[in-house]
Amino acid sequence: MVKHIILWKLRSELSAEEKQTVALAIKEGLEGLQGKIPGLVAIHVQIAGRLESSNADLMLDAKLASPEALRGYSVHPAHVAVAESRVRPYVEQRTCLDYEYGTL
After folding, report:
1. Does the pTM of the predicted model rise above 0.85?
2. pLDDT tens, residue by residue, 20-65
3. CATH number of 2-100
4. Which of 1, 11, 33, 71 is deepest in the core (most CB within 10 A)?
5. Residue 88: how many CB atoms within 10 A of its CB?
6. Whether 41 contacts 65, CB under 8 Å
7. What ranges do the domains of the chain cover?
């Protein structure tokens, strides 16, 4: 199993209301991929409950069956469509951590 964690900071020129709208669209788009991409076991986008100590606006937490499934997810047309339309235009910073379970 592979964990795919992404933290995004939304563009600073967006108002608080715009950020909320964008975050909801990202959540709906990415979570809507469940069941559409081979090897995607679980996917969740965290947009609520962010504490002031945070320096990211939202987080993707995805579980995939294998490193090969992660590679397939990254280029799958459904994922690319969401990333190009709902994520990339609104993000100024992206941090990623991918890891296999049980490794140090």
Report:
1. yes
2. 999 999 999 999 999 999 999 999 999 999 899 999 999 999 999 9
3. 3.30.70.100
4. 33
5. 11
6. yes
7. 2-100
